[in-house]
Design brief:
elongated, 6 strands, Ribosomal Protein L13p, Chain: A
C-alpha cells in the first residue's frame, strides 16, 4: 500500500480571528510621507501574519502632535490641495502651509486616505485613524501602546 503525502492546509483568516490593537504615534518632527506610509501599513494590517486583503485586519492608530510634522524642500509652499465646488470659477487652492495653519489634522488624514484601498474596505479602515492637535487624546481607556516608527 502506497502512503500519500500530507497536503498542507491553507490558513484562511476569518473576522473572528482578528484582534485589533491600539497604537499612539507622535508626529512631532516626523516627515509627512514616511509617517503616513507607515501608518497606512498599520491600519491595513499588512504587518500581521494573518493579513488578508479582503478583511479589515489592521489596528487603530492615534496620531498626536499633528501640527508639528516636517516636510522637506519647498513643499510647504509648492504643495497644493484643491477643492472644486462644481461652479464656474469654483476651484479653491490652498497651500500646505495654509492647511497646516487652519486644519493640521487634514494633512495627515488626506495623505493616509490616498494610500488606502478605494471602496468600502478603505472607508472602514480610515475610521480607525484618530488624529489630534497637541499631545492629549481621549483614548486612554483603550490602553494604547506607544509606537516608535522605523523611519523619520
Amino acid at each position: 500500500m502506497v502512503e500519500r503525502a500530507k497536503i498542507p492546509v491553507t490558513y484562511i483568516t476569518t473576522p473572528k480571528d482578528i484582534e485589533h490593537k491600539w497604537y499612539v504615534v507622535d508626529a512631532q518632527g516626523q516627515t509627512l510621507g514616511r509617517l503616513t506610509s507607515q501608518i497606512s501599513l498599520i491600519l491595513t494590517g499588512k504587518r500581521k501574519p494573518i493579513y488578508s486583503p479582503n478583511l479589515d485586519c489592521g489596528d487603530y492608530v492615534v496620531v498626536i502632535n499633528c501640527e508639528k510634522i516636517h516636510v522637506t524642500g519647498k513643499r510647504m509652499d509648492d504643495k497644493f490641495y484643491y477643492r472644486y465646488s462644481g461652479y464656474k470659477g469654483g476651484l479653491t487652492t490652498l497651500s500646505l502651509r495654509q492647511v497646516l495653519q487652519t486644519h493640521p489634522d487634514r494633512v495627515i488624514e488626506l495623505a493616509v486616505k490616498r494610500m488606502l484601498p478605494k471602496g468600502a474596505l478603505g472607508h472602514q479602515i480610515i475610521k480607525k485613524l484618530k488624529i489630534y492637535v497637541g499631545n492629549q487624546h481621549p483614548h486612554e481607556a483603550q490602553n494604547p501602546e506607544v509606537l516608535e516608527l522605523k523611519y523619520k
